[in-house]
Amino acid sequence: METAEKILEKILTLAAAHFKVPREKLSPDDDFFKTLGIDSLQTLDLLTKLENHFQVELPDYELQGVSDFRALAGKIQARL
Amino acid sequence: MKEFAGQALSWKLEQGVVELALHREPCNELGSLSLGELEQFASALDGLEKDAHALIIFSELQSGFCAGADLRELYARSQGIAKSEAVRGVRNFLERIHHVLSRIDSSALTTIAAVHGVTFGGGFELALVCDLIIADKMARFCFPELRLGLIPGFGGVPRLKRDLGNAVVRDLLLTGRSFNVTKAQQVGLVSQVVGEGEQLRAARATAAQLGKFDRKTATAAKRFIKPIPQEELRQEIEIFCRLFAEPAVEAGLKKFAESTDAQPYLP
After folding, report:
1. Total-model pTM
2. B153 CA to chain A: closest CA distance, Å?
3. Which residues are CB-contacts of B218 (< 8 A; sequence separation ≥ 6)?
4. In chain A, at which end, N or C, are there fewer CB atoms within 10 A of the end residue's CB?
5. Domain that holds residue B146
6. Tens digits of per-residue pLDDT, B126-178?
7. In this structure, is residue B177 part of a structural domain?
8. In angstroms, how far apart are the furthest CA atoms of chain A?
9. Within a domain: B264
10. Residue-range domains of chain A with CATH
């Protein structure tokens, strides 16, 4: 199983690449809505990118209230 | 009319393939403008069917295929009038869009929805009238209506039931969660998955293949395996209108219309 840190690092790399933000500007505890400047539709893009990469299903309702990368990594780890 | 350029959508006929492009910002929300132009398309379909063998429906917007009904317009139009009048307005809209969607569903052409990104609510229902759904890797499918106190109103559930097992239909309908394309292909909703942004190219290649077959045979085959669920479509309108009269719906629509939530689309 991948460690939480590895998952987190991959999320940050994928998010930076997809939304064309320098990787070094993203930190694990950032609110990704604010840091990435994304709306609800773009959030779904991020969700799809992560599901495709980690080959997991992340039901939307499990992500309610999740707004930082670290918490997101925890949700993915729980599904691996 | 072999070509049309509207504000919400456009179509053209080339080499036997009709391409219907959606292009209303932000994500092809279906309101009165889109409906009026879809009705023009439905009227033109009789003529187009004489010269074409396939129809492709796709979005020109990067944001996705279609985010569904225009809920802000729906909310605005139901304000300042009696509930019974609001319900009458909704019923009229539903009758009209059902007419258009059933016309496309029963078209003699082989129809393809080439989808990417958000394919939600009414957008999902538009894709479901097509014979084939070709999706890119970023496509997501969802029926978020229950969070508003409604059921899908554009024929989604009867058409989904026609195509998929009831367990999957219930999961989509009752949880309001979204499926990614891997899941959608697993359950049999999507027949071809392609790389990011490749859905239209794949749909055009498929449409070219369809042109090799006798049209009458293809139409007969389609009608044999894809009946229109008329009775359930009628029931859907009745249930939707009954639910629309409930106070919870107005509260849900108000919340959505006035929301600054970062996740208004997430159930």
Report:
1. 0.93
2. 22
3. B53, B110, B210
4. N
5. 3-257
6. 999 999 999 999 999 999 999 899 999 999 999 999 999 899 999 999 999 99
7. yes
8. 31
9. no
10. 4-77 (1.10.1200.10)
